[in-house]
Specification:
This protein has a single domain (3-129), classed as Response regulator (Rossmann fold). It is 50% helix and 17% strand. The protein is built from five helices and five strands, in the order βαβαβαβαβα. It has a five-stranded parallel β-sheet with strand order 2-1-3-4-5, with helices on both faces. 30% of the residues are buried.
């Protein structure tokens, strides 16, 4: 079963995302900032990460940079940035940083689930063929 880590400092938003994912049949993990998210990533190795960018302690960009520099084995986990930063440059920066996708708040749950489903298809195909994402 696919496990998705949701990292967001806003508890009510994180709770809504987790509820939606669980209703769709996914296992979920939660973290309230990038530092906690990194700890969960290292310990649990989720299949997908949905991550806010603007958070205390460690933001989403710092988290993805930390993974790329110090935890290369985790770089195959697809990141979907979900953020209130809606301008084009922030989207480009997020994608250039290594995010698989970038969605903006307010949350369009249909679009979020479509992005997650796309990641799941690639993960399952890679598992069948023995490739990494």
């Amino acid at each position: 079963m696919i496990t998705i880590l949701c990292i967001d400092d806003e508890a009510d938003i994180r709770s809504l995302i987790v509820e939606e994912l669980q209703e769709a049949g996914f296992n979920t993990l939660e973290a309230s900032n990038g530092r906690e998210g990194l700890e969960v990533l290292i310990a649990k190795w989720p299949d997908i990460v949905i991550c806010d960018i603007t958070m205390p302690e460690m933001d989403g960009h710092s988290l993805i940079a930390e993974i790329q520099v110090n935890y290369p084995d985790l770089t195959n986990i697809p990141f979907i940035f979900l953020t209130a930063l809606t301008d084009r440059q922030n989207k480009l920066d997020g994608l250039k940083a290594g995010a698989a996708d970038y969605l903006t708040k307010p949350i369009d749950f249909d679009l979020l689930m479509a992005k997650v489903s796309g990641c799941v298809v690639r993960i399952e195909n890679d598992r069948k063929t023995g490739r990494s994402f």
